UniProtKB/TrEMBL annotation:
Originating species: Thrips palmi
Chain positions recorded as FAD binding sites: R195, T197, W208, S247, H250, R286
Any one biological process term the GO annotation gives: protein folding in endoplasmic reticulum
One Gene Ontology cellular component annotation held by this UniProt entry: endoplasmic reticulum membrane
Self-association state and partner proteins as the record states: May function both as a monomer and a homodimer.
Family affiliation: Belongs to the EROs family.
Record protein name field: Ero1-like protein isoform X2
Intrachain disulfide bonds: C91-C96, C137-C176, C390-C393
Matches recorded under InterPro entries: Ero1 (IPR007266), ERO1-like_sf (IPR037192)
Topology relative to the membrane: Peripheral membrane protein
PANTHER family: ERO1-LIKE PROTEIN, ERO1-RELATED
Main location: endoplasmic reticulum
Keywords: Disulfide bond, Electron transport, Endoplasmic reticulum, FAD, Flavoprotein, Glycoprotein, Membrane, Oxidoreductase, Redox-active center, Signal, Transport
Active site as annotated: C390 (nucleophile), C393
Encoding gene (name): LOC117652529
Length: 467
């Protein structure tokens, strides 16, 4: 009996390393997904808890919600020049061009939307007229009747200047630049999916090096682009959070590129736009400890960290978002979206281990200074997105950075702390000191959708690696 026991023990000892490591290599110390377990750094919940919650409850709801017109049409300026360097790089394949929307494709409610007045009048189209004392009153009245019936929306130039001051004050609280200028165009995100474009080499590396080396907080005397996981504890919580946010976004983008890889560029009746799918070798190259100096698993953990941060932002803004109109001009579609958002938010609020932002930026003047640095660093990163040489990469890079910026604004601006006061009645709208613009709401949900999609696709790569 003892001989059988020892024999089984020996077999078990020999076999266990391969159970953990069969994904990448026979060396158990080099496994990837086996390190992606247990508690998420600087958070209070486990990876497997997030996997189940996301894949079973969040991901299916988001897939349906983000296909609605309110969320699929994103207004963005892809024509801005890079303010930091001259770069004429282009992606290597023809699939990276972005298709702008035709006028007839845009929902009527979005075409009427006036972004500069959103925080004052919500999503209504308020056609502003200025009175300088020289206009014919009868002519003015006729124009107003023609455009807006008997609704008088005339305001003075002085009042408009005050509104602009309010907008400028709100902008100071923003963590990123938002595209709402005259060169911004609507893009249908469903027709321009995030996927591999062949954009790589010096231009792409320059983008990420500028983000990591020049805008991420760093431990003293650390000069590499990526900060090793064992060095992060040399920084305070706030600086660690900043790095994990950027690293998590980077990991998420890389997962999208690996899962939507161009497997064949040959057109056919079945796949006229080329064949796209999961590239397991590319995934291993980007995340295997063998090719990442053992950092790949930690980058994946940072993806989970960012997911929890954005999850918390949605939960915190839920009293505000629950009463948002999500206006596109279609009563039925808008009603369906409102119901779907409320359902999603109720599920999000049920999550038991949310990220705790209250532990950050405490400690008086020094904390205030650190928060300002935090905001400025992230605003810089949002501007760096204009330096991306691939149009589709720029589109999705800007969207995800702006979405994270909206989440950070909700968590750390201090303006969303009293959204759900005691005694708030059903149907009564929660008040805050300023509003989220439509672009911020669209990017907030879509950026969270990208993270949810990444975590769901990790399960697909797990299955491929087992096979």
């Amino acid at each position: 009996m003892k001989e059988v026991y020892y024999c089984c023990a020996i077999i078990l000892c020999l076999f266990l390393p391969y159970v953990c490591d069969a994904y990448f290599t026979s060396d158990a110390s080099q496994s990837c997904f086996c390190k992606l377990e247990g508690q998420i750094d600087d958070c209070s919940c486990n990876v497997d808890t997030v996997d189940h919650f996301n894949n079973m409850k969040i991901f299916p709801r988001l897939q349906s919600l983000l296909s609605a017109d309110y969320f699929r049409f994103y207004k963005v300026n892809l024509k801005r020049d890079c303010p930091f360097w001259t770069d004429d790089s282009r992606c290597a394949i023809r699939y990276c061009n972005v298709q702008a929307c035709q006028e007839e494709d845009i929902p009527p409610g979005l075409k009427q939307y006036n972004p500069s007045m959103n925080s004052i009048f919500g999503n209504q189209d308020m056609s502003l007229r200025f009175i300088d004392g020289n206009e014919d009153c009868e002519e003015l009245e006729a124009d107003l009747n023609e455009e807006l019936g008997y609704l008088n929306t005339t305001i003075s130039a002085a009042a408009y200047e005050e509104f602009e001051k309010w907008q400028a004050h709100d902008a100071l609280e923003n963590f990123c630049e938002v595209d709402e200028d005259k060169d911004a165009q609507y893009v249908d995100l469903l027709l321009n999916p995030e996927r591999y474009t062949g954009y790589k080499g010096k231009s792409a590396h320059r983008i990420w090096n500028s983000i990591y080396k020049e805008n991420c907080f760093r431990p003293e005397n650390h000069y590499d682009a990526f900060i090793q996981s064992n060095q992060l504890n040399r920084m305070c919580l706030e600086k660690r959070v900043f790095y994990r946010v950027i690293s998590g976004m980077h990991a998420s983008i890389n997962i999208h590129l690996c899962s939507k890889y161009l497997l064949s560029d040959k057109e056919s009746l079945i796949s006229p736009g080329g064949k796209w799918g999961a590239n397991l070798e590319e995934f291993k190259r980007r995340f295997s400890p063998l090719t990442t100096d053992n950092e790949g698993p930690h980058w994946l953990r940072n993806l989970y960290f960012l997911y929890l941060l954005e999850l918390r932002a949605l939960a915190k803004a839920a009293p505000y978002l629950t009463h948002e109109e999500f206006f596109t001009g279609s009563d039925k579609d808008d009603r369906d979206v409102r119901d779907a958002v409320r359902d999603l938010l109720s599920v999000i609020k049920s999550f038991p281990n949310h990220f705790d932002e209250s532990t950050m930026f405490t400690g008086g003047a020094q904390a205030t200074k650190l928060k300002d640095e935090f905001r400025q660093h992230f605003r810089n990163i949002s501007v760096i997105m204009d330096c991306v040489g691939c149009e589709k990469c720029k589109l999705w890079g800007k969207l995800q950075v702006q979405g994270i910026g909206a989440a950070l604004k909700i968590l750390f601006s201090g303006k969303f702390e009293s959204l759900s006061p005691p005694g708030l009645q059903p149907g009564q709208k929660a008040k805050s000191q300023f509003q989220l613009q439509r672009g911020e709401i669209v990017t907030l949900f879509n950026a969270f959708g990208r993270l949810s999609n990444s975590i769901n696709e990790l399960e697909m790569f797990r299955k491929l690696l087992r096979e």
